[in-house]
Amino acid sequence: MAFEGLTERLQKAMEKLRKKPKVTDADLRETMREIRLALLEADVNFAVVKDFVKKVREKATGAEVLKGLNPAQQIVKIVNEELTVMMGETAVALEKAPHIPTVIMMVGLQGAGKTTTAGKLALKLKEEEHARPLMIAADVYRPAAITQLQQVADSIDVPVFEEGTNVDPVQIVKDGMDQAHANHNDYVLIDTAGRLQIDEKLMDELAQIKELTHPNEILLVVDAMTGQNAVNTAEGFNDQLDITGVVLTKLDGDTRGGAAMSIRAVTGKPIKFVGEGEKMTDLDVFHPDRMASRILG
Ligand code: GDP
C-alpha cells in the first residue's frame, strides 16, 4: 500500500511527542530528526526535506508553540500544513482554451502510463463536462502503441485520429488538429511517443508538436513508484518543454511517496491528477491537503 512505511514512521514520531506532558526544545529536535529520516527514507528529495524541516521548526518555535496548550497537537498541525504547502497547497484545474479545442499534450517516458492516462482524462472530460474529445495517436515508434490507444479509446467511446506509423508525428498532429477543427471537438488529447529515457530526438519532436499546437496543457505522466527518478524525469521534461502540470500514476502501488512530495517543490509545477489503478475511472484530481492527511494517516 502506498506511503505505508512513511505513515507509520511519522505516526510513531508524533505518538512519542504526544505522550510528553511538556515538549522541550530537545523533544522538538528529536521529533524533527525522526521526521527528516522518515522523509528521506520515503525518497523525498534531500533539498526539499531540508527546507521542510527548517520551516516546521521555525513555525513550531516562532509561534511559542512549545509553551502553549497541546504542543504536540500543534506540531502535528504544523507538519500537516507544511506538507500541504510542499505539495502545492491547493488543487490546480486544467487550463481551458478560450476557443475550442483545448489542446492537451500527454508526454512521458514509456511505461509511465501515458496512454492509459490519456484515456482516463478523456473519460473524465466526457463525464464531467459532456465533452467531445478527439485523441491523436502520435506515437509512431511502437506499432502496438496505436492499437493500445485505439483499445483504450474504444472502451470509453472516444474517437482516435491516426495515420499509421509511416507518417511523421508532427504531420499526424497537424492533420489531427484539422480534423478536430472540422468536427468541432472541444478537446484534443495528443498521445505522444515515450522513450525509455529522455533523448534529444524525443524532445525535439515534442518541441515541434508544442510549437505547432500551442497546447493549453503539457501534462507529464510519471510513475510514482520510480521515486527520485520520477522527480528527475519531471525536471528534465520541464527544462526542455516547460510543462504545465504532472500526472502521477500508480499511486495505488507500494510507492514510498517521495515523488508525490517532491515534484512540486523541485519543478514548481503542480501535480494536477493522480492515477490510482488500471481502470479508466481510476483518475482523481490531486488535492495537496487530502494527500497530506493521507500521508500522516
Ligand atoms: P505508456 O507507455 O506511458 O503509454 O504507459 P501505459 O499507458 O501503456 O501504461 C503502462 C502500464 O501501467 C499499463 O499496464 C497500465 O495499465 C499501467 N498503469 C497506468 N496507470 C496506472 C495506475 O495509476 N495504476 C496502476 N496500478 N497501473 C497503471
UniProtKB/TrEMBL annotation:
NADP as UniProt keyword: no
Chain sites annotated for binding GTP: 108-115, 191-195, 249-252
EC class: hydrolase
E.C. numbers: 3.6.5.4
This protein's UniProt keywords: Cytoplasm, GTP-binding, Hydrolase, Nucleotide-binding, Ribonucleoprotein, RNA-binding, Signal recognition particle
Domain SRP54-type proteins GTP-binding span(s) in chain numbering: 270-283
Subcellular locations according to the entry: Cytoplasm
Catalysed reactions, semicolon-separated: GTP + H2O = GDP + phosphate + H(+)
Parts of the chain that traverse the membrane: none
Keyword Disulfide bond: no
Purpose of the protein: Involved in targeting and insertion of nascent membrane proteins into the cytoplasmic membrane. Binds to the hydrophobic signal sequence of the ribosome-nascent chain (RNC) as it emerges from the ribosomes. The SRP-RNC complex is then targeted to the cytoplasmic membrane where it interacts with the SRP receptor FtsY.
Assembly: Part of the signal recognition particle protein translocation system, which is composed of SRP and FtsY.
Family from the record: Belongs to the GTP-binding SRP family. SRP54 subfamily.
Domain comment quoted from the record: Composed of three domains: the N-terminal N domain, which is responsible for interactions with the ribosome, the central G domain, which binds GTP, and the C-terminal M domain, which binds the RNA and the signal sequence of the RNC.
UniProt-recorded name of the protein: Signal recognition particle protein
